[in-house]
């Protein structure tokens, strides 16, 4: 479904801010907080974010690369995310982040003790909670943008 955006309005700003200001502004705050307040490393952050973008099919999420202090992941990083199981471009943390994102989105009931044991070997409980909140935000908001066709109309701001 495509939302009718008035002429001259920013699609994201209109849908998230004007259409449902009581919800959208709070959602936008969470979305921005994931980028502005993360303590996760760039590679695991992007591995999880891009895996969700692939699952959601959100066009601008797939094109976006998070930048930190002038650094972004390499151009072919998204190919490594696609092949997260076998790529040699990932360390254990990035591989687990991609796996967690995929399982969270597609099989959250299948997150078993074996998986959590592997996560606990490489992530603190605080990092797991942060990664979970980030994945949840990307899943919800990237999917919302894709479902409403906003991903074809907008460009994400730089953080």
TrEMBL record:
Domain of life: Bacteria
Coiled coil regions, renumbered to chain: none
Pfam families: CMD (PF02627)
InterPro entries for this protein: AhpD-like (IPR029032), CMD-like (IPR003779)
Record SUPFAM superfamilies: AhpD-like
Domain Carboxymuconolactone decarboxylase-like: start-end pairs: 30-102
Name of the protein: Carboxymuconolactone decarboxylase family protein
Organism per entry: Lentzea rhizosphaerae
Lineage, uppermost ranks: Bacteria, Bacillati, Actinomycetota, Actinomycetes, Pseudonocardiales
